[in-house]
Amino acid sequence: MTTPSDSHTGDADWLDPFETHRITNQVPPSDGCNLFDGDPILLAMLEEVLEPELEDELYRAGAYWGSADARDFARLANDNTPVLRTHDRTGRRLDVVEYHPAYHALMSRGVAAGLHASIWEEPDGQAGRQHRQRAARFYLAAQTECGHLCPLTMTNASLAALATSGDLFEDWLPAVCSRRYDYRFLPAGEKAGATLGMGMTEKQGGTDVRANRTVAEWSSADEAYRLIGHKWFLSAPMSDAFLVLAQAAQGLSCFLVPRWRPDGTINAIAFQRLKDKLGNRSNASSEAEFTGATGFLVGDEGRGLRTILEMVTLTRLDCAVASAGLMRAAVSEAVHHARYRSVFEKRLIEQPLMQRVLADMALDAAGATALSMRLAESYDKAVDSDLEQTYARLITPVAKYWICKSAPRVAYEAMECLGGNGYVEESALPRLYREAPVNAIWEGSGNVMCLDVMRVAQRMPEAIEEVLAAIGDDLGESVGPEINALRAALCDGDPEEGTLRVHTERLALLAAAAALRRHAPRVVSDAFLAARIRAPWRGSYGTLETRYDATALIDFIVPDL
């Protein structure tokens, strides 16, 4: 007799203890797969930096994030959402958020892996590879649970802003770079480790942070600023400090606002409510009121936008990497289901229509993985290469645009591959589907990414020429017409704003194909190009040309281990 938890190699049939018949044609759980060892695209993209020690670490991470234990933590953290406690039993303000232990377990593992700050640690021989190493860890974790990654990515990115203020950076770096997670509500100096959050947007502004009305006034008595105002989104409210934009005497400025003042009293940050979000539910997002909160200037007064520029860039990289992980997870669930589920006397994976759908989805997941890791590579190499620096500047919004917009579509199609089994909460897909849209919204929506591409084109047309030439060199003469069309649209005069989505998506597809061409079998990048650049517009998956072996593509991208 077999059980629903049988290994990957057998049929999942068992005797129902309440019935007299044998249950057949149910798919065994996908728990137990190694997310690293079973991802040839990721392995290929990391080949340059994959030394034995890192390979062993990622192998262990892949085993954990594919395990039943990790998936149980993810389920529990999202089923038991954070709770805001504004006051204690006597009516005194608390302003604390309580999380399920599963969330703390996920955070502890993420911090131990350095997802919050490893690129800021002393290189110790790892210079020029830290972004790729962290991106790989982040990508693996994202396949199982993304909510806890929000405070980790904000902490990592916030250090880029703090780096503009030497004393603040030196004061906070040791606690933030600690590999120990400490969720206790105490002053940061009394904790084993610290995390950082952000509070940028307000009710009237959203993306337009110049419309912020929170004010910051200098207090000689405190030798700091006092902030008064409101934040519409203050994510991860139990962070130890927040980067906040507020209007100072010289204009919009950036401030570090800790939960505790230097004198050991609680800072004047009042949480009004938690957002009831579609996804990302394990992580709390709050509305907050500053009622004279103590803040410390980060960077120069009046230069708030410039101060947070590098911070925003790093968060956008993480959005792309996490969405690539979500796509990979969704495709893996669909392929696993199709390998075991039978219909009309054949396994789903043997049905020609399903083969085309899965292969088409797998190509997008492969392209997203390749492009996000290629982008992380450019961050590693930007210090020594003008071309890589330009690549990072241009392709960051491009990759975020395409990858983050692709994730919901892939998650939905994977759900349809499972049918009703994919629509119920016992499946991982409903959570993946709810999670998928957030990265396209956070840190700049699709239109904002396109406008960022336009700014690069206007200010650095020669640099864009270099990136396009490099992509063309990777892909060969066959993409010459597409490269020339992009060159004409982006470099020859001002781009027309209304066409920017077309150009941004095509640039993303070419960049993803170039990354695949470098590191995957030629047939993978050829199929990707054929289905996404040369084929007519398509409204759904499953239109891959029959000259490509769909089964071979599936088996390479999502091997049956």
In short:
With 561 residues, the protein is α+β, with helices and mostly antiparallel strands. It has 20 helices and 13 strands. The strands form four sheets. Strands 5, 6, 7, 8, 9, 10 and 11 form a seven-stranded mixed β-sheet that branches. Strands 1-2 form a two-stranded antiparallel sheet.
Give a written overview of the molecule:
The chain has 561 residues and is of the alpha+beta class. The chain folds into three domains: 46-177, Butyryl-Coa Dehydrogenase, subunit A, domain 1 (Orthogonal Bundle); 188-305, Butyryl-CoA Dehydrogenase, subunit A, domain 2 (Beta Barrel), CATH 2.40.110; 309-557, Butyryl-CoA Dehydrogenase, subunit A, domain 3, CATH 1.20.140.10. It contains 20 helices and 13 strands. Strands 5, 6, 7, 8, 9, 10 and 11 form a seven-stranded mixed beta sheet that branches. Helix 2 (52-65) packs parallel to helix 5 and helix 10 (352-381) packs across helix 19 (522-534). The two termini are 23 Å apart. The relative contact order is 0.10.
Helix content: 40-55%
Gyration radius, rounded: 24 Å
Q: Strand percentage, roughly?
A: 5-15%
CATH class (first level) name of the largest domain: Mainly Alpha
Largest sheet: 7 strands, mixed
How many β-strand stretches? Answer: 13
Q: What name does the CATH topology of the largest domain carry?
A: Butyryl-CoA Dehydrogenase, subunit A, domain 3
Number of helices: 20
| Number of domain units | 3
Note the gap between the termini: 23 Å
Which of globular, elongated, flat, extended, rod-shaped describes the shape? globular
